[in-house]
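Changelog entry: the ATP-binding protein record was regenerated in this release. Current contents:
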Amino acid sequence: MTPLELRLLATPKAAPELRRHLREHGFDVRLCATELLTNVIDHLGEGTPVTVRVTGAAAGGRTRVEVTDPDPRALPVLLSAATTAESGRGLALVDALAERWGVDREPDRKTVWCELGS
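Regenerated C-alpha cells:
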C-alpha cells in the first residue's frame, strides 16, 4: 500500500477527512487512526496541528499508524471506562485492535503509534 502522510489540524471535521484518505485500508486501521486523532482533540485541544502517517506492507505484513502532536508532556493513558461513560474508550479500542502500541517522545513533540496485523 502507498504510505500516507497527512498534516492537518485536530478538529472533529478532520476525522471523516482522515477516514476518506484511508479508504484503501481496513476498518481497524481507519478506527485506530481516528481514535488517536480524537485523543489529541480531547487532551490537547481542538486545532492542535498533527501529522498522521500510515505505512506498511499489503500482504502478510503490519500496518503502522502514527499521530504526531507538539506536546511531549501529555501522554496517553489506557483507562477502564465505566459502562455508562460517554468517553474514555479510544485507547482501549486501539489496545484491543493493535498488536502493539506505544509513544515515542522527543523534546518538542510526541508520536503515538500502533501496529496492526493484516
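The chain has a mean pLDDT of 88.
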